[in-house]
Amino acid sequence: MHTFRTQLPDEVEQRLKNNESFDILDVREIDEWVSGHIPVAKHIPLGELPERYNELDRSKEIVIVCHSGGRSALACEFLAQAGFNVVNMLGGMSCWRGEVEFGE
After folding, report:
1. How confident is the model at residue 74 (pLDDT cuts 50, 70, 90)?
2. How many helices (H) and strands (E) would you count in the chain?
3. What pLDDT does residue 3 have?
4. What is the residue-averaged pLDDT of the chain?
């Protein structure tokens, strides 16, 4: 098992406000994404990750987001194994109080 760090949504939001350099990957399904996502996030549903992870930037830390933290933990495990530096956002979008964008 590969290890990865975790951060709370408030910590991730603060990092965004501090203009820290990292990417956010949302692994929820399209209907969940459309109903509200973090504006700077990239969207790749968990089921598509094995085919699409090469779209991600290996040189940056990636914070992984889902609804509550379960699917993002699976994504973190997969990406950590593939050599990415990943962080699981605990609580996911259900705990996110920052800015949200709607639609695709």
Report:
1. very high
2. 4, 5
3. 78
4. 96
Q: What is the 3-state secondary structure (H, E, C) of 47-87?
A: HHHHHHHHHCCCCCCEEEECCCCHHHHHHHHHHHHCCCCEE
* Contacts of residue 51, Cβ cutoff 8 Å, sequence gap at least 6: none
pLDDT digits (tens, 9 = 90+) for 29-63: 999 999 999 999 999 999 999 999 999 999 999 99
Q: CB-based contacts of 73: which residues, under 8 Å, 6+ apart?
A: 88
Contact between 56 and 37 under an 8 Å Cβ cutoff? The reply is no
Confidence band (pLDDT; 50, 70, 90) for 1?
A: low
For residue 61, count other CB atoms closer than 10 A to its CB: 15
Catalytic sites, residue numbers: 66
Domains assigned to the chain: 5-95 (3.40.250.10)
Global pTM reads: 0.96
